[in-house]
Amino acid sequence: MTNRGTLLSAAAVLVSAVPVAAWGLLGQQNSGELPASQLDYAFQPLGVPDGLDTVLGVVALVLAGAGATLLVRASRSGGMDKRWWGVLVPLVMAGLLVGLGWRVLTAGVIGANIGAGLVIVFGGPVVAGLLLWALGRGVWLANHRPGHRPGHRPGGDNRGGQWTGFAPRGA
């Protein structure tokens, strides 16, 4: 059985490793027609030596796989509430989009980088929506534990809609 700290660490590793894996495994997307010094960039790529980005991507992919494996096992054995996947999956998808989007934003091109504009216009709101969904779902799950009803008093008087937290005056 895994403890809460281990699950939280596995989730943090999964969510943080996915964008690095996507970025590293995709590789620099420069136009092949000119040398890198003559290309136009919407944003300058990170100054990572050739080949190191791939190594970082592979290491991040292994870490993401290990985190996901631990979380899936805990979820199947009952050590993790399966509803938390509604938080993790949007975070992983947002990380994937950020990793891939960064490669598009830093691609060396001849002239305008239309893909960078599309990533900003469409990818930005999608990532923001995924993050907001994950935040909202996480807050909701943290406040609504299974078998727990807000306002419910075990063995007490539970009339008048008190389990919802709203009750008519005098109830």
Structural summary, described in words:
The protein is an all-alpha fold and 171 residues long. It is built from 4 helices and no strands. The chain has helices at residues 4-26, 52-77, 85-105, 114-143. Helix 3 packs antiparallel against helix 4 (114-143). 23% of the residues are buried.
Give the key terms:
elongated, 171 residues, mainly alpha, 4 helices, single chain
Structural class: mainly alpha
- Overall geometry: elongated
Largest sheet: none
Name the assembly state: single chain
| Strand elements, count | 0
Rounded to an integer in angstroms, the radius of gyration calculated over CA atoms is 23 Å
Helix content: 55-70%
* Element pattern in H and E: HHHH
Tally of contiguous helical segments? 4
Q: Spans with pLDDT under 50 lasting ≥5 residues?
A: 156-167
Strand content: under 5%
The average pLDDT score comes to 86
Distance between the termini: 44 Å
Please describe the topology of this protein:
Blueprint: H1 4-26, H2 52-77, H3 85-105, H4 114-143
